[in-house]
Amino acid sequence: SCHTPTPVYGISGGSPTFTWLRNGTDSKYQVNIAGDSNFTSIITSSSRRKGRKWMRKTSWKPGKRKWKKVIAVANASSASQVTFYWRAVGKTGGLVVSKAFVLDKTQ
Predict the structure, then answer these.
(1) Contacts (Cβ under 8 Å, ≥6 apart) of 50
(2) What are the Cα distances from residue 78, in Å, to 25, 34, 39, 62, 89?
(3) What is the pLDDT of residues 13-52, one digit of tens each?
């Protein structure tokens, strides 16, 4: 529902695992993380280099290198809590879910 509180993650706690439900169409998905809800500037994504853009699973935990990019954006902000957005996209069905999360620099 739209009343679920936005999750807050401590900046020192490592990356969270993002999970979503199958959309009934796709077996392959991709996750993007951005600083805005329109995903105009994607900070990182689950795509691998070497052309592996899609994964056959419904969860993704960003690796250390990718999560560091998110932390760097948070650290560049003057706010102690910085909001980010993540989305899961199906290969043919498109957007599955789009949600916000907050990084707390005091934690």
Answers:
(1) none
(2) 41, 18, 21, 24, 31
(3) 999 999 999 988 999 999 999 999 999 999 999 998 777 8
